[in-house]
Amino acid sequence: MLRERAAAHAQRRARAGVLATALDGGPGAHVAARQLGIATAPAVVIAMGVDTAALPAARAEAERHRLAAADSRSEAAVLDGVT
């Protein structure tokens, strides 16, 4: 069970890194956008402040599940304290 949790955590961190690269707009942004499946379609970015009483990673995971119900291409991650 610990290995599964560690693997899921590593995957979330990797996806967050790809998302951050896409949002930064630098030289690797197009490749990152392709990895996320948003390179050829319009995309919307929504930033939310994180309640300090809640765990940011748990909030991002809850938002990811909620958004995935609306669009399977959605992503949610904590980047610099913003979900």
- Helix/strand order, N-terminal first: HHH
Strand coverage percent: under 5%
Low-confidence stretches: none
Silhouette: globular
Give Rg in angstroms: 13 Å
Number of helices: 3
What number is the mean pLDDT?
81
| Span between termini | 26 Å
Quick one: how many beta strands? 0
Helix content: 55-70%
**Main sheet: strands, sense, barrel:** none
SSE-based structural type = mainly alpha
Tell me the count of domains: 1
Briefly characterize the structure:
The chain is an all-alpha fold.
Task: Write a structural description.
This protein is mainly α and 83 residues long. The chain has one domain (2-70). It contains three helices and no strands. Helix 1 (2-24) packs across helix 2 (29-36). The longest helix is centred in the N-terminal third of the chain and has 23 residues, at 2-24.
What are the main properties of this structure?
83 residues, 3 helices
Set down the secondary structure blueprint.
Elements: H1 2-24, H2 29-36, H3 56-70
